[in-house]
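Hey, sorry to bother you again with one of my protein questions. There's a protein on my desk that I can't quite get my head around. No rush at all, and the record is pasted right below.
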Amino acid sequence: DRVLMLRQVPAKVRSAFEALWQIDAVMGDVVARSTQPALGAVKLAWWRERLEDLDRGTVPAEPRLQAAAQHLLTRGMTGARLSEIEDGWATLLDEAVDASRVADRGARLFHLGARLLGSEDQSVGDAGALYALVSVGRRGVPELLEPAKEHARRLTGHRFVQPLRPLTSLARLAARDL
C-alpha cells in the first residue's frame, strides 16, 4: 500500500516521504523480529535516541538516519518530532497493547506527511490512527480493529483536499480492510 501511495506523492517531496516511511518501517521491523520484548525495547530506544541526536547535528552512518537528516530535517522537521512515533511501536512489545498509543503513532505519522504535502486537515489524525490500528490489527493484534472503527466512523463523509489524497488513500484502504 505504501509503495502505491508513494507513486502518487509529488516528485519534489517523494524522497522525504520515503525517508519518513523508512523510519517508521524500521521500527515496525524491530517489533516484528523481536523474540524478547526487552531486547526489542532497547532497539527501539536506540532508534528514538538516534533520531533525537539528529537535532544536535549527530548523523550516524546509518542510511535511514542519513536520509532523515537530508530529506526531513531540511524541511523543518526535527529528530525529536520524528522520534515520537517510536512509542506506538513500543506498546506492541508490552503484555497489553495500548490501542491509543498505536493510534497516536498513526496520527503523528500522517500529520508529518501532511506537512510534507503542504496541507493540513483536522481529520488527518483520525486517518492516520485508522491506518495504524488496522495495519497492525490485521497483522496479529486483532483487538486493535475494534478501536479502529471509531476513527472510521469519524471519517465517514469527510472529503480530504486533493494534496492530502496520496496519504489518506492509505486510510481509505484501511477502512476497506476493516
Remarks:
- The two ends are 15 Å apart (CA to CA).
- Residues 40 and 157 are 39 Å apart (CA to CA).
- The mean pLDDT is 95.
- DSSP finds ten helices and no strands in the chain.
